[in-house]
Records
---
Amino acid sequence: MSPETIANRVFRNVRNGCPIADTAVYVAVPGNENARWLLPAGNSGIDGVLANWQPYRLKSRLAWAGVRAASKIGQVSEIPGSSVLEVEGARSTDWSELGWPGNEAPVPVIYLGTPGPRRKAVVHLADRVSGKCRAVVKVPLTDEARVALLHEAEVLKAMAEARFEWAPRLLHVDHASGITTQDFVEGQPGSRSLGPEVWRLLGLLLLPGETTSLEAHAERWEQGISGAAGAASVASAVEELRDSTPLPACWEHGDFAPWNIKRLSDGRCALLDWEDARREGLPLQDAYHFLHIQDYLFEKRPRSHAAEVVTEAAATMGLTPTQCHKLEAAYLVGAYVRCMQRGNHERARFVERTLALRGSRSA
């Protein structure tokens, strides 16, 4: 879909069939060869939203600084590669029906997720006076995205009931459309290092008094690789992981990565994007995802990380070095299964090569 088609679809969905009373001009700003942001043209009061976004690659950071500078002077339409769109109903949408807490209508600023079967649009609702974001509306663009967002809503509800303070609060959910609204977590993007504040967050995800085991997850992995071509090494790892030793159970976030972590003003961290979360997960899976996803995206070479986590894993979760190594293999098996299920064959091959490092080291 073109950026204009997506923008009109987003506003049509959030209006829920209400009549169109206006049009507004937006600018599609590219990123990684696709439209990534849809910014209101000429609006220079949204830097409070844009300031919370910080790319990790140097080239992207420089480009983003240019976007922010153009926005401040109302010249986003002059950004190289951008395109001007006319969007229907952007001003007439009643955002209060979707959980908007303000008295005046907000300024919608739209981030478009990565193209794929679970693509969504994330509408940041900025206060017109302060320019700060006060709520986030997630709009699914596919059926799979709808299922994922409704799952996230259930997880956020459960986290709120458990008084877990380091996740967004759910403000609204429409089960028919899959549109959800959360409060906005203001803070700086998370560091790429697995530092003390991140380990503290991992410790908060533990389920006190609850246990699980590698064996309890083996059947799910086995079913996930059934019939997959070239998965013999993964199947072999599953057999080695059939261990019924009790391990501390936890909430597994599922996409625990720097860009889904916010460093708050008090130095602590909060977690965003709970669409892949599951209860009664294995320990260290999020820590390993944090490290291995960066190997894939930034380093472009597979590595083993078990030795790096041993000290903190013992202090935070009471795990032994042997358990740390087994749990890394468990993460890689689970990541391979998820990649195959979602058709991400490139990363599946990378994960399989990473898993092979374990066999070569023991040989």
---
Amino acid sequence: MSQDELVEDPTAEATPPECDAKPADTDLELERGVGPEDGEWQAASEVDEAFVPEPIVLIPSPVDGLPIPADERPGLQLAPRFSVDNLVCLEDRRRYVEVFEEELLDEYEDWGHFAQSHESNLLTYRTIHDEDGKERQRRVFSASLVEKLYGRDVVCVCSAEGVAMRGAIYTIIPVRPLRPVCEHYKRQLFNNDDQPDPNKPGHRILFRNCTARRSVGGAFLSLRDQAVYACEHRTPADPTSTALLDAIDDKALTEVVEEVPLFNLR
């Protein structure tokens, strides 16, 4: 099978000689007018590449009699709203949780230096496990209570055993956002060739990508107009995602196949 035949049919099975790509075969010359958006890989591409077009059945619209697809649904098909709930990659700063001692020393090295400084009597923190070896429940704080001290997010709590500060007795609890931003979530802001005037709307295009996933060609997964409800590629990990994905797996493992209705409709 020749290389030309492989290009015409990407799904064709190649023999070992055809799999031995030469450096010249992998070169890609960008044409004039090609922008960053042409290098993005859409999640739907995995399905679209093997999609076989089918004829669309049209019927008269009950509203105006014009032809419409038979399976057309009412309402606009809008992209999911860009929000903390719809995109697990984002940082959730609506609430904050305490940081345990083990995290201070491992993930927050600068906190360790602070704890050893002369201000250490202000800082209070707990270990992940209690005296019985059980995992502690993190204390949760409203975002309105958080302030910046020594370059870190903290919550100052009134305490009889604390240190006099701001006219009261306080202790400092180190905190972090309920869900930190994922390190694989990256953004870029490019110009739009279709709108060359930088002072007009539409000149800037924001690209949101997941660098943990790539297409066969190496393009990052685009997160524009897309929802990500749970992800185990996330760093740091998101316990809510893990729980949601575990529940889906547990249901699939325990559900009897014969009891599942046709097309999984209930």
---
Amino acid sequence: MPCMLLRDGQVCVPGPDGPVVARTPNSSAFDPFDVVDRLAANYSILYVVDLDGIEHGQPQLDYLQELSRDMTLWVDGGVRVADQAIDILVAGARRAVLSSAYLRGPRELRRAWRLSTELAFELELAANGQLVTADDGWAASGPEELAGLVRSAGPDHLILSPRERDPDWSLVARIAAGGPTWVDGSFEPGESSHLAAAGASGGIFHISELLTRWDETPTVDPSTTS
């Protein structure tokens, strides 16, 4: 599943100090609608990381509405409370992604599930392998315990997101044994052997490499670093 970062209507890619705007050699930004059109030719689902929602609590609902007309979207918009997930779904997302890094505890998880079943849940892991959590309600749990808690509350589709480290494939396999599990990582689209061996449903990858294969190659604009 390709992952597109979106900030203020512009396509971004990972940079050394955070997401940066992807630019062509002539310094123009990539049009997100053109990017989605090209991705839709080869992929059925797009994972959108809405940086405005994550960084400022203001998801780009107008853009999500337009993009969802051309491709099925899973959207991580930094949902803190249940109502924000519904806003993302109403805008056209197929699934709203809740994350241990932003959601304010199990109560909001249960509230969101009562409002809609079109949810996925991200377990974000720091470089040391510990869960990244936004609320003390998650803090006592390890990734396997939290996976069980989330699935018992309702959402079955989980995303394991290790940051600044390779995935722990034995952990992936244990979590995948309980239900559909996706891995957000730095691997390339063709490197599916680990995913298959662990029983994962699939992998989520950034589109930086895909952009370089297209007609114009993106470069980093230093003025747009986070």
